[in-house]
Amino acid sequence: MKQVGSSGDKVVRGSAVPAGNRDFQEARQAKKDEFYTSLADIEIELAHYPEHFRGKVVYCNCDDPRVSNFFRYFSTNFEKLGLKKLITTSYRSQDPVNFSRRDSLRAVRLEYTGPDKSGRIEGTVVSDVQPLEGDGDFRSAESVELLKQADTVVTNPPFSLFREYIAQLVEFDKKFLIIGNMNAVTYNEVFPLIQANKLWYGPSIRSGDREFRVPDDYPLAAAGSRTDEAGNKFIRVKGVRWFTNLEYAGRRVDLPLTQTYDPALYPKYANFDAIDVSRTKDIPMDYPGLMGVPISFLDRFSPAQFEVVGSSKSLGRKMSEIAAPGTYPPGGPRFYLSNGDGTFRRMYDRIVVKNKRL
User: What percent of the chain has pLDDT over 90?
Assistant: First the structure.
């Protein structure tokens, strides 16, 4: 199985796609997996981890060092961060259209150990980049051997392989900081890590969207896409988050709670004994039981304040066991609320939490 996408800083995308995001829908159908992360977004997030990289080997395993902003950041800040080594590898394109350009598109690696005595940043010229024997897929034996050398992985892996990518990081017990779609927290491979406090969102991206540069042949259709004066294409992508297991200041600060519990405002689910809280800011300060909250709650989650009990995917009873056919919209495991007339509405994914302070 080949890794979808070519080298560069590719934004991780989950399987859920906003209905209005025509650019992303079309690109996903065409197997286009290349969203290039801006240097500004990298700088803003990495500023929260000033001491995590001292004496460490950092591996960017989805990055061509000749164009990657991840390589640019770590090589420029190599001495400031106190890095021991920076390893970058890229994936070779397997697009048959580009077969004649195979030599220029082959997988490459670069192991960078800092600027020389003249101050030159070694590894920034093409002659310093070495070819890989294989295709650079992060699951290849060659890439895995490099992964074993690393302390921390920082990159933007292909959205279509996010589950496998996370599983590999966990298998080899690596620290990591990667970009993904916020809906990835609902994956069976990811949610148990959230629940066990082994993975969380990074601090710099909360709500809204982010702009990413895309290849020249990327389809642009939706509002928010643009082409700059140099001909570079950009799109805005919703629901982007950093995923990490690196601690940062403020992660254990309590979420301020201002609402009080009112049964009329917080209905219980029909297929699970918990109240529905549709917005994080509306979590009641005085409710001691289980609450279903949106996944955006994780932007403000403090493990000292709340316990993550489970999710609607695993806790909700089958509606066929409690309601007649035709009274509820079918679908995968979710929570349902009564409409008051014998019918039920299906809710978005919910995370079930409990206030530890009560």
Answer: 66
CA–CA distances in Å: residue 84 to residues 59, 204, 330 = 11, 26, 53
For tokens 């809280």, name the residue: 277
pLDDT band, very low/low/confident/very high, at 206 (cuts 50, 70, 90): confident
pLDDT at 215 over 90: no
For each of the domains in the chain, give its residue range(s) and CATH number, in order of start.
22-244 (3.40.50), 275-355 (no CATH)
- 36-58: string of b/e by CB count within 10 Å (b at 16+)? bbeeebbeebbebbeebbeebbb
What are the tokens at 162?
């996010």
> What pLDDT score does 117 carry?
57
Cα dist from 66 to 71, 108, 205, 236, 315, whole Å: 8, 10, 26, 24, 47
3-state DSSP call for residue 308? strand
Question: Which structure tokens are listed for 234?
Answer: 């950009």
Give strand pairing partners of 307: 354
Assess whether pLDDT exceeds 70 at residue 18: no
DSSP state letter for 49: -
Q: DSSP assignment of 19-46, as one string?
A: TT-HHHHHHHHTT----BPPHHHHHHHH
Token pair, residue 345, equals 């509405």
Mapped onto helix, strand or coil, the DSSP state of residue 185 is: helix
DSSP code at position 160: G
Q: Could you give the 3-state DSSP secondary structure of residue 147? A: helix
Report the first-to-last Cα separation within the chain, whole angstroms.
49
Decide which of 175 and 66 is more confident. Answer: 175
Q: Are 237 and 11 in contact (CB under 8 A)?
A: yes
Q: Strand ranges (DSSP E) for the chain?
A: 57-60, 85-89, 108-112, 130-131, 152-155, 175-181, 200-201, 209-214, 226-227, 233-238, 240-244, 275-276, 291-294, 306-311, 336-338, 344-346, 350-355
Residue 120 · residue 75 · CB < 8 Å: no
Dump pLDDT digits (tens) for 220-267: 876 778 898 888 888 888 889 999 999 999 999 999 999 999 999 999
CA angle 290/294/295 to nearest 5° reads: 110
